[in-house]
C-alpha cells in the first residue's frame, strides 16, 4: 500500500498511531523482532505496542529488563528448566523460579493477562501474588511445572475475576484435597477452558457441576481421575457446547441408567473435536462415545492404559477425521494399520510406551510406522516409542512422508541396530533428513555412528532442536551438526563420545543457539572453563551431584552434566550449591 | 540376573542375552543355550566376535548395567581367539569405565570364588542366622546356601531386608584392583570375574522349584513358561530353569529381555550376583533383595534400582527411555487402579507403628503405600536417618578399615540395625522373610532393632524349615 505512488514514502512520516496499528497485524514474534530492528522510531513503537513475549529460557534475561523493554506486556510465555528435566536428568532444585518474575511485574504494575509457563517452579506464593496483582488476569497455562499446591490454585480461582483459562498440563501438584474448585466465586462465568487432569486428589463435585453450569462459554474441560462417570454425564448435559473434553474416571456398568444417560447426553455434544482422559476406563463403556468420534480431530488416549488393542482399533474405526492421535503402544502394529487405513487426515502421531521399562510387551515396531506413513500422507509430526526400527523402514517412511516437521523416534533399547542387517541406523535417519526439508525437531535413537551426523549436518538445514543419546563415535559427529545445522537452537546430548574438541571448535555458534546440554559425554571441566571465559555472553553451568567441590577437581576431570545457554544477565543468583556457574 | 553364570566348572551363557546386549540380534523369543566350545565358534563365525570386540566402542559400555558388562567380559572369555593379554586390556578399559558398583560386584564374586563352592556353603553354615542379624556380617555371608535347609536360605536371601544400603563390605577391593593391575592375570582369576553362583549348589535348586511358599510357587509358574532351554552336559553344562524340578537350576538365569518379568527373579541368587539382579514389578517382592554390592554409587544405582522394571539385559539408564516422569508415574498408578477394577478394590490404608531402638519417637507408616520391601526400607531410612546418623557416629564405623566417602555413607545408614516386625500372633520376626503381600497382611508393628538384640529372632522361613526338617 505504501509503494503505490512513484515517490518513496517515508514511513516515518506516519504518525506513531498509524504505524502501531499496522504493527498490530504483525503477530509473529519473529517478524516483530525484525520490525523493531528497522530504525529507532520503529523500535520505540514496537516497544510500546508489543503485548506478547516469548522467553525460551527464564535465565536469558532479567524480569526488570523485560519490563523495561516491553512495558505494554500482557502475555508472557516463559520456560524454565532444560528439556531433559522431563526425564529426571536435572536435579529437583536446579532452579527455574517463577516468583521473581511475578514480583517484578507486580511491582511495575504490568497489566499481565496471560501467563504460560513450562518447566518452571511455581510456588503458591507466586500464584497468590499473581492473583492479587493483575486485575485483568485471564489465562494461566502451566505445563510440566511443580512446586505449588491446590492452595495456589484456590487463590487464582478466588481472585482472578475474569479468568478464562486455567490449564494444568502434566504438573506435579501437591493436592491438599482442598475445595479449590469451590473458590471460584459465584460471579465467575467467564471460563472458557478448565483443565485439571493432572491433579491427583478429590474434587468437590458439586462445585464443579455448578461452575460448569454457570460457564456458558466453556469450550474445553478436562477432568481428573477423581471425577466419576455419573458426574461426567451430568456435566455433559450442562455443557453440550464443549469442544474439548477430557474424561475422568470412565468406568460404569453399561446396563445402568447413568450409562444410558451419558450416551444420550454425549450425542448432543456434537461440537466435541478433541477427546482425552480415560485414565481409568471400562472398555465396555467405550461405545457410548462412538457417536462423537466421527467429528474428532484430536484423540489422546495416551493415558488410557485400560484399553487393549482391539478396543482401540474399534474406536479408531469411527475416527475418520483425526488429525492428531496420541496413543499407547498397546495398539500394536496391527492397530496402527487400522489408523493408516482410517485416518487419512492424520498429521500428528504420538505412540507412547505402555511400559517403558519392559520392551518385551506389546510394543510397536517399524511395521506400524511404515503402515501409517503409507496410509497418512499428511503426517508431519511424529513421536514414536518402538521396540525396533530398520533402515529399510525409515527409508520407506521418508519416501512416503516428506512433510515431517517433528520426527522423534525412540527405540526403547538405546543402542539397538537394525535387527535385520545389524547395521547402524545411520542410513535410515539419513533418509529422513534428506527427504524432509522442513524438519525442525529431531530425536535420534538406536545404534548410530558419526555418519548420521554427517547426514544431519548436510541436509537438515532447518533443524532447530536435536536430541541425541548414545550415538556417534567421535568429536566429528557433533561437529557435523554444529557446522551444518545453521538454524539449530537447542542441542541436547547425552552419553555420547563428544569431547572438548567438538565443544570448543566453534564457540560463536552457541551465541546463535538457545542452549546446549551435554551429559555423560567426554567434555572436561577445563574445556567448560575455557568456554565460559571466552564467551561472556554464555552461562556455562556444571551440575555436579557427586558432592565433590569444585576445588577438588582438576580440569581434566570430565563433567557429568553441562548446560550452557546464552544470556544477557550474566550469572544467575539463585543457583543451588551443586550448580557451578563457570 | 546375569547372562553368564560360572560355577567353577561350567559357564552357562544366555546367548540370546549376550546377543541382545551387544545388539547383534533381536528376537523376542528367548533361547538359552549352553555355550559350548563348538557354539562359541559358531557364534564367532556368525558374528565375527573378534572383530566385533575390536570395533565396539568402549565408551558404549557405560550405558550397561554391571550385569551386562559382565556379560561382555564373559563373552570375551569365550572367544577362543582372544588372548588373555587382550582380554586383560579390555578389562582394564572396562575398569576405568566401570562404576564403583561394578567393582563391588566383581570383588564379591572374586572372594566367593576363591573358595570351593560347597565349602563356602558349609563354612557359612553357623553364620547363617547371625548373618542376618549380625551387623558386621550382614552382607558378607554372601554364599549362604546350606545343603540341609538351603531352600529357606534361598528364600531368605531373596526376601530379606536390610536397613541401609549394603555395600560397605568390600574388603577385597584393594586386592582386587591390585590383582587386575599387577598383570599377573592368568586364567583362574579371570573366570571369577563372572558372576558366580557357587554358593547355590545344584541340590539347592530343586528346592526352589518345589518351594513351599506361595510367592515362590506363583512365580515359578511364570518361570516355567520361559521356554527354549537347552540342556547339555559335559563340561559346558546348562542349568535348566524350566519346570523340571529335578534339574539343577541356574539361579542367575532369572531374567531375559522380553520376558516381562514378573517372575524370574525369584530365583534366589548368591549375593555376589545380586548386584546385577534387576527387579521387575513391584508386586514381586521376592526380587527386592537389597543389592549387596551396589551401595557405593548411591545416587545412580538407587535411581535405577527403583525403576526396577527393565529387563536385566537391557541397559538401565537414568532418563531412558525419554518418557516424562509425570507420565510414567501416572501410568503406573492408572494401571494399578485398572487392576483393582478387575479384581478387588484397593486396600484401605494400613497404618502400623514403627519404633526404633533408642529413638525417642514413634512413627507410623501406611503399608499400603509401599509395594516392595525396598520402598519400605528406603522410606524408613528417611524417617529415621537423622537418628541413625548420630548412632553410627559412636560405634558404627568401628572395625572398618579404609573408608572412602561413599563407604562411609553406607555405614551411616546403619547396617547394625535390623528391621523386625510383630506378626498377627504377636511374634517378632525379621522383616523380609515372607513375600511382601503376606507381610502386609500379617504385620502389626515394626521395630528397628539393634542387630545385637535381634539375634534370637528367627526369620519365619527358617522356623518353618526347622519344622520340616
Pattern of helices and strands of chain B: EEHHHHHHHHHHHHHHHHEEHHEEHEH
Largest sheet of chain A: 21 strands, mixed
Q: How many extended strands of chain A?
A: 25
Mean pLDDT of chain A: 92
Question: Strand order across the biggest sheet of chain B?
Answer: 4-3-7-5-6
- Poorly predicted runs of chain A are none
Query: In DSSP terms, counting alpha (H) and pi (I) runs of 4 or more, how many helices of chain A?
Result: 20
- Global structural class of chain B: alpha+beta
Task: Give an overview in words.
The complex is a heterodimer of chains A (582) and B (469). Chain A is globular, with a radius of gyration of 25 Å. Chain A contains 20 helices and 25 strands. In chain A, 50% of the residues are buried. With 582 residues, chain A is of the alpha/beta class. Helix content of chain A is 32%, strand content 18%. In chain A, helix 1 crosses helix 3 (40-49) and helix 15 (391-400) packs parallel to helix 16. In chain A, the strands form 3 sheets. Chain A has a 21-stranded mixed β-sheet, with helices on one face. In chain A, strands 5-7 form a two-stranded parallel ribbon. In chain B, 44% of the residues lie in helices and 7% in strands. Chain B has a 5-stranded mixed β-sheet, with no helix packed on it. In chain B, strands 1-2 form a two-stranded antiparallel sheet. In chain B, helix 1 packs across helix 4 (66-78) and helix 9 packs across helix 12. Chain B is α+β, with helices and mostly antiparallel strands and 469 residues long. Chain B has helices at 15-22, 37-47, 49-55, 66-78, 84-97, 100-113, 117-123, 127-133, 150-159, 173-182, 187-190, 202-209, 214-225, 271-274, 298-307, 325-342, 373-396, 405-412, 436-442, 460-468; strands spanning 4-6, 11-13, 351-356, 363-366, 417-422, 428-430, 445-450. Chain B has 20 helices and 7 strands. The chains are: A alpha/beta (582), B alpha+beta (469). The interface between A and B is large, with 56 and 49 residues.
Amino acid at each position: 500500500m505504501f509503494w503505490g505512488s512513484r515517490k518513496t514514502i517515508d514511513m516515518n512520516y506516519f504518525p506513531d498511531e498509524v504505524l502501531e496499528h499496522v504493527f498490530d497485524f504483525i503477530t509473529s514474534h519473529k517478524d516483530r523482532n525484525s520490525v523493531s530492528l528497522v530504525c529507532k522510531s520503529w523500535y520505540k513503537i514496537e516497544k510500546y505496542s508489543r503485548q506478547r513475549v516469548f522467553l525460551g529460557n527464564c535465565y536469558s534475561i532479567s524480569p526488570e529488563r523485560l519490563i523495561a523493554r516491553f512495558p505494554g506486556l500482557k502475555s508472557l510465555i516463559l520456560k524454565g528448566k532444560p528439556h531433559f528435566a522431563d526425564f529426571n536428568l536435572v536435579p529437583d532444585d536446579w532452579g527455574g523460579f517463577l516468583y521473581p518474575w511475578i514480583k517484578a511485574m507486580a511491582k511495575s504494575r504490568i497489566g499481565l493477562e496471560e501467563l504460560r509457563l513450562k518447566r518452571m517452579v511455581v510456588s503458591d506464593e507466586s500464584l497468590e501474588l499473581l492473583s492479587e496483582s493483575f486485575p485483568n488476569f485471564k489465562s494461566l497455562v502451566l505445563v510440566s511445572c511443580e512446586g505449588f499446591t491446590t492452595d495456589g490454585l484456590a487463590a487464582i480461582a478466588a481472585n482472578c475475576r475474569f479468568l478464562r483459562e486455567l490449564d494444568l498440563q502434566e504438573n506435579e501438584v501437591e493436592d491438599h484435597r482442598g475445595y479449590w474448585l469451590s473458590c471460584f466465586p459465584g460471579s465467575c462465568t467467564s471460563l472458557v477452558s478448565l483443565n485439571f487432569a493432572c491433579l491427583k486428589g478429590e474434587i468437590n463435585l458439586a462445585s464443579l457441576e455448578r461452575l460448569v453450569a454457570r460457564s456458558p462459554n466453556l469450550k474445553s474441560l478436562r477432568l481428573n481421575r477423581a471425577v466419576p462417570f455419573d458426574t461426567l454425564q451430568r456435566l455433559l448435559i450442562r455443557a453440550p457446547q464443549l469442544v474439548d473434553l477430557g474424561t475422568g474416571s470412565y468406568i460404569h456398568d453399561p446396563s445402568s441408567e447413568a450409562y444410558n444417560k451419558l450416551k444420550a447426553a454425549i450425542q448432543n455434544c456434537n461440537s466435541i473435536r478433541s477427546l482425552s482422559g480415560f485414565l481409568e476406563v471400562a472398555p465396555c463403556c467405550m461405545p457410548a462415545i462412538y457417536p462423537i468420534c466421527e467429528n474428532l480431530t484430536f484423540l489422546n488416549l495416551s493415558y488410557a492404559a485400560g484399553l487393549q488393542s482391539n478396543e482401540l482399533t474399534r474406536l479408531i474405526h469411527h475416527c475418520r477425521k483425526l488429525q492428531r492421535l496420541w496413543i499407547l503402544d498397546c495398539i500394536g502394529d496391527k492397530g496402527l494399520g487400522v489408523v493408516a487405513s482410517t485416518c487419512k487426515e492424520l498429521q500428528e502421531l504420538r505412540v507412547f510406551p505402555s511400559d517403558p521399562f519392559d520392551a518385551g510387551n506389546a510394543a510397536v515396531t517399524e511395521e506400524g510406522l511404515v503402515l501409517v506413513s503409507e496410509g497418512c500422507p499428511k503426517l508431519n509430526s511424529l513421536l514414536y516409542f518402538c521396540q525396533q526400527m530398520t533402515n529399510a523402514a525409515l527409508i520407506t517412511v521418508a519416501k512416503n512422508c516428506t512433510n515431517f516437521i517433528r520426527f522423534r523416534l525412540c527405540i526403547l533399547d538405546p543402542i539397538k541396530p537394525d535387527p535385520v542387517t545389524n547395521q547402524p541406523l545411520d542410513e535410515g535417519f539419513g533418509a529422513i533428513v534428506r527427504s524432509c526439508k522442513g524438519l525442525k525437531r529431531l530425536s535420534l535413537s538406536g545404534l548410530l555412528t558419526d555418519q548420521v551426523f554427517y547426514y544431519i549436518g548436510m541436509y537438515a538445514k532447518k533443524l532447530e532442536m536435536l536430541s541425541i543419546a548414545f550415538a556417534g563415535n567421535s568429536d566429528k559427529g557433533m561437529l557435523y551438526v554444529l557446522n551444518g545445522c545453521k538454524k539449530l537452537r537447542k542441542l541436547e546430548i547425552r552419553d555420547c563420545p563428544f569431547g572438548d574438541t567438538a565443544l570448543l571448535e566453534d564457540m560463536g555458534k552457541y551465541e546463535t543457539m538457545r542452549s546446549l546440554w551435554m551429559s555423560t559425554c567426554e567434555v572436561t571441566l577445563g574445556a567448560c572453563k575455557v568456554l565460559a571465559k571466552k564467551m561472556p555472553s554464555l552461562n556455562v553451568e556444571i551440575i555436579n551431584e557427586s558432592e565433590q567441590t569444585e576445588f577438588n577437581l582438576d580440569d581434566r576431570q570430565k563433567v557429568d552434566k553441562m548446560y550452557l545457554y546464552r544470556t544477557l544477565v550474566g550469572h544467575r543468583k539463585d543457583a543451588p550449591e551443586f550448580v557451578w556457574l563457570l | 540376573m546375569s547372562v553368564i553364570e560360572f560355577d567353577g566348572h561350567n559357564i552357562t551363557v544366555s546367548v540370546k542375552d549376550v546377543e541382545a546386549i551387544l545388539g547383534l540380534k533381536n528376537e523376542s523369543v528367548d533361547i538359552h543355550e549352553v555355550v559350548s566350545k563348538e557354539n562359541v565358534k559358531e557364534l564367532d563365525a556368525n558374528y565375527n566376535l573378534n572383530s566385533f570386540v575390536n570395533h565396539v566402542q568402549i565408551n558404549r559400555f557405560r550405558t550397561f548395567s554391571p550385569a551386562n558388562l559382565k556379560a561382555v567380559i564373559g563373552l570375551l572369555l569365550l572367544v577362543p581367539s582372544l588372548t588373555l593379554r587382550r582380554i586383560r586390556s579390555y578389562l582394564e578399559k572396562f575398569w576405568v569405565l566401570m562404576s564403583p558398583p561394578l567393582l563391588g560386584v566383581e570383588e564379591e564374586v572374586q572372594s566367593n570364588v576363591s573358595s570351593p563352592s560347597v565349602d563356602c556353603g558349609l563354612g557359612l553354615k553357623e553364620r547363617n542366622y547371625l548373618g542376618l542379624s549380625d551387623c558386621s556380617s550382614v552382607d558378607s555371608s554372601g554364599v549362604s546356601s546350606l545343603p540341609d535347609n538351603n531352600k529357606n536360605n534361598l528364600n531368605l536371601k531373596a526376601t530379606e531386608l536390610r536397613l541401609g544400603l549394603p555395600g560397605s563390605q568390600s574388603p577385597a577391593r584393594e586386592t582386587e584392583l591390585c590383582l587386575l593391575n599387577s598383570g599377573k592375570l592368568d586364567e583362574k582369576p579371570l573366570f571369577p570375574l563372572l558372576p558366580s553362583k557357587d554358593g547355590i549348589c545344584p541340590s539347592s535348586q530343586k528346592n526352589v522349584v518345589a518351594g513351599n511358599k506361595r510367592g515362590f510357587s506363583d512365580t515359578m509358574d511364570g518361570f516355567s513358561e520361559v521356554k527354549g532351554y537347552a540342556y547339555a552336559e559335559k563340561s559346558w553344562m546348562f542349568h535348566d530353569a524350566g519346570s523340571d524340578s529335578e534339574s539343577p537350576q541356574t539361579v542367575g538365569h532369572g531374567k531375559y529381555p522380553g520376558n516381562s518379568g514378573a517372575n524370574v527373579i525369584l530365583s534366589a541368587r548368591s549375593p555376589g550376583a545380586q548386584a546385577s539382579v534387576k527387579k521387575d514389578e513391584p508386586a514381586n517382592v521376592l526380587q527386592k533383595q537389597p543389592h549387596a554390592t551396589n551401595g557405593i554409587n548411591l545416587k545412580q544405582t538407587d535411581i535405577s534400582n527403583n525403576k526396577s522394571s527393565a529387563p536385566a539385559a537391557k541397559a538401565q539408564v537414568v532418563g531412558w527411555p525419554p518418557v516424562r516422569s509425570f507420565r510414567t508415574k501416572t501410568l503406573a498408578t492408572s494401571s494399578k487402579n485398572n487392576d483393582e477394577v478387575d479384581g478387588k478394590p484397593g486396600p484401605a490404608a494400613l497404618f502400623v507403628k514403627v519404633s526404633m531402638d533408642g529413638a525417642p519417637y514413634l512413627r507410623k507408616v501406611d503399608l499400603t503405600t509401599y509395594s516392595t520391601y525396598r520402598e519400605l526400607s528406603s522410606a524408613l531410612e528417611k524417617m529415621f536417618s537423622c537418628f541413625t546418623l548420630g548412632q553410627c557416629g559412636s560405634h558404627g564405623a568401628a572395625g572398618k578399615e579404609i573408608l572412602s566417602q561413599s563407604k562411609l555413607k553406607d555405614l551411616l545408614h546403619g547396617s547394625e540395625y535390623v528391621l523386625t516386625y510383630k506378626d498377627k500372633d504377636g511374634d517378632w520376626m525379621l522383616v523380609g522373610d515372607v513375600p511382601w503381600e503376606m507381610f502386609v497382611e500379617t504385620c502389626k508393628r515394626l521395630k528397628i532393632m539393634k542387630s545385637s538384640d535381634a539375634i534370637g529372632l528367627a526369620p519365619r522361613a527358617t522356623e518353618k524349615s526347622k519344622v520340616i526338617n
